[in-house]
Amino acid sequence: xxxxxxxxxxxxxxxxxxxxxxxxxxxxxxxxxxxxxxxxxxxxxxxxxxxxxxxxxxxxxxxxxxxxxxxxxxxxxxxxxxxxxxxxxxxxxxxxxxxxxxxxxxxxxxxxxxxxxxxxxxxxxxxxxxxxxxxxxxxxxxxxxxx
Length: 147
Description:
CATH architecture of the domain at 46-144: 2-Layer Sandwich
CATH topology of the domain at 46-144: Alpha-Beta Plaits
Shape: globular
Order of helices and strands: HHEHEEHEE
CATH class of the domain at 46-144: Alpha Beta
Number of strands: 5
Radius of gyration: 32 Å
Strand content: 15-25%
Distance between the termini: 74 Å
């Protein structure tokens, strides 16, 4: 029955002298989808730019390209003095150590900066090493990169 109705409607519309069927207005153009963009690189905060020296403690087996990329990222962020100390063992965990309470904010900023590079799924811990040295140099931070 439905087929008969469709045939009759088509015949009616196609008969000689029937008004032409107007083309439907084209759909309005949709705005182009936003292009997926990578997030801007994280810029260093003031605490990171104020860091004087970082002792980068890594395994002697760390790939030189990985080490060089980290040193370059730190220098680009404003850390002028990065002392690389290759260790004869693999540190068990990545972390940042500070020795004076006045350097805690710098250590926390360094941990936030480094975490996406070496601990993407977790935060990089910050540890107080103040009891380890009698008179540590002001501003000393130790960045350990491990498993």
